[in-house]
Amino acid sequence: MSSPRGQRSPEPTAAPGDAVQMAEQLVAGAWMAELYAAVHDAEAALRAALHLRATARAKVRAAQRAGDPERIVEAQRELELTEHDLAEADATFSGVSELLARELNDQPSATRVRILPNLPATAA
Q1: DSSP 3-state assignment of 106?
Q2: What does residue 112 show for φ and ψ, rounded to 5 degrees?
Q3: In terms of domain of life, where is this protein from (predicted)?
């Protein structure tokens, strides 16, 4: 814009509240993207733990069929470890899933609409 003397008028600036709101939206969007990524990672870990437990169970059955006491003990120990890992993976997945659900419920619907389209494809 030009003033009558040929000087440029200052460009209109956004209200300070707009900048704060934009920053809050950016932070909220980044936080939600991180939560979605954490849920995705926890789900992958849970699937892996389920697979490892199934494999350990198969080893126990094979050792029992073979009648080898040492292999049975070793396979049982491995199964116990995979059960422990599975419990941890399940707790992690449940925790991050619940946190994501709470965060989604706490977001005003207008903010959710602005945030969700910017999330990574794995979060959809």
Answers
A1: helix
A2: -60, -40
A3: Bacteria
